[in-house]
């Protein structure tokens, strides 16, 4: 008897790597004004090359321009333009660009089938350590985003980052906060359980989260969160087959967007889909593609997005699971 685990065939566009925060574990950012932004022409060339390959999700992932910066409007406009371009070329955008103002979120809702923001951890103590130079990591700001996403009926992905100095109690508080907000609005489709993983360009000199503890962290999350929230783990950070299967047994059911490059953890390439399926199928799991919006939320999208999603849903229903290289 096979059980299903899902993933989203995805590609990431990065409008800019510049970020005004300096999280100590970051392997993504460059200093403000030190990066040429991705132009719409460059993005179009990349997206055109992806057409017909079964990739449905375009993840728009960006470093953050300060909320009071004069360049903030241009930054948001570029993000919106990339989403519109992705839709015009037949893809489904999912944007994750840090905390947004309410009006910014409303604007991006019109051009996204879902959006995301990691809560990471709600413990304020981290603002004195790994987040001492990262004002947008204030827990209340991130929880406010989850509330607004619910109010605006935006299907949403959030998650925990494990191993950045939090306690077990902090993790419980974070799960509880997410559960409470979801109970109010019913909009959180996935929670990512992400182990902090040491990279080559970060400031923080600390070992990664002990991966052997991941299955128990997932089991705790599964008990703490409502059943209609799917738990997601990134397979490139859970690199050992036995561990990956143990995480599924503990309650994870999704492997997230599998892209050519994990921009947040560039030192950890994603596994090949067929190799991944080979590992999974020997243990009774089948890997299926999914869309970046779950079916129960499609009615929240505007008619243009709904019709694009329907086209993809029809195409996906014809697909069988990923075939292993046997
Ligand atoms: S982790 Fe995100 S918010 Fe923090 S510095 Fe890196 S890009 Fe910026």
UniProtKB/TrEMBL annotation:
Family: Belongs to the radical SAM superfamily. CofG family.
Species, as recorded: Geitlerinema calcuttense NRMC-F 0142
Entry protein name: 7,8-didemethyl-8-hydroxy-5-deazariboflavin synthase
Quaternary structure, from the entry: The FO synthase complex consists of two subunits, CofG and CofH.
EC class (word): lyase
Pfam families according to UniProt: Radical_SAM (PF04055)
InterPro entries the record matches: Aldolase_TIM, CofG_family, Elp3/MiaA/NifB-like_rSAM, F420, rSAM, rSAM_sf
Recorded metabolic or biological pathway in which this protein acts: Cofactor biosynthesis; coenzyme F0 biosynthesis
Ranges where the Radical SAM core domain occurs: 5-236
Coiled-coil regions listed in the entry: none
SMART domains the record matches: Elp3 (SM00729)
PANTHER family (UniProt xref): 7,8-DIDEMETHYL-8-HYDROXY-5-DEAZARIBOFLAVIN SYNTHASE (PTHR43076:SF15), FO SYNTHASE (COFH) (PTHR43076)
Keyword terms of this UniProt record: 4Fe-4S, Iron, Iron-sulfur, Lyase, Metal-binding, S-adenosyl-L-methionine
Enzyme Commission (EC) number: 4.3.1.32
NCBIfam families reported for this sequence: F420_cofG (TIGR03550), PRK06245.1 (NF004884)
Its job: Catalyzes the radical-mediated synthesis of 7,8-didemethyl-8-hydroxy-5-deazariboflavin (FO) from 5-amino-5-(4-hydroxybenzyl)-6-(D-ribitylimino)-5,6-dihydrouracil.
Top-level division of the source organism's lineage: Bacteria
Signal peptide (from-to): none
HAMAP family xref list: FO_synth_sub1
Amino-acid positions noted as binding [4Fe-4S] cluster in the UniProt annotation, renumbered to this chain: 19, 23, 26
Cofactor note: Binds 1 [4Fe-4S] cluster. The cluster is coordinated with 3 cysteines and an exchangeable S-adenosyl-L-methionine.
């Amino acid at each position: 008897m096979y059980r299903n685990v899902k993933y989203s065939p995805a590609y990431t566009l990065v409008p800019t790597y510049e970020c005004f925060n300096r999280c100590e574990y970051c392997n993504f950012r460059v200093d403000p004004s030190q990066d040429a932004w991705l132009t719409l022409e460059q993005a179009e060339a990349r997206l055109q090359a992806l057409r017909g390959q079964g990739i449905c999700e375009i993840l728009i992932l960006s470093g953050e321009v300060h909320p009071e910066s004069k360049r903030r409007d241009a930054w948001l406009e570029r993000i919106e333009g990339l989403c519109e371009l992705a839709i015009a070329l037949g893809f489904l955008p999912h944007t994750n660009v840090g905390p947004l103002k309410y009006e910014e979120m409303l604007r991006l809702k019109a051009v996204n089938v879902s959006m995301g923001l990691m809560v990471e951890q709600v413990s304020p103590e981290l603002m004195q350590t790994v987040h001492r130079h990262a004002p947008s990591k204030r827990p209340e700001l991130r929880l406010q985003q989850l509330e607004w996403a619910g109010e605006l009926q935006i299907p949403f992905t959030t998650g925990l980052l494990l191993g950045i100095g939090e306690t077990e109690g902090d993790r419980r508080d974070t799960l509880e906060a997410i559960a409470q907000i979801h109970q109010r609005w019913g909009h959180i489709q996935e929670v990512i359980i992400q182990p902090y993983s040491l990279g080559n360009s970060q400031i923080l000199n600390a070992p990664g989260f002990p991966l052997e503890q991941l299955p128990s962290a997932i089991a705790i999350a599964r008990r703490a969160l409502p059943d209609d929230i799917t738990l997601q783990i990134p397979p490139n950070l859970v690199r050992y087959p036995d561990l990956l299967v143990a995480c599924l047994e503990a309650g994870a059911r999704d492997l997230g967007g599998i892209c050519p490059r994990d921009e947040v953890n560039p030192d950890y390439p994603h596994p090949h889909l067929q190799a991944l399926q080979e590992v999974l199928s020997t243990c009774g799991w089948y890997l299926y593609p999914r869309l970046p919006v779950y079916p129960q939320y499609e009615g929240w999208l505007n008619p243009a997005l709904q019709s694009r999603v329907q086209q993809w849903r029809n195409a996906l229903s014809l697909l069988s699971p990923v075939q292993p290289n046997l």
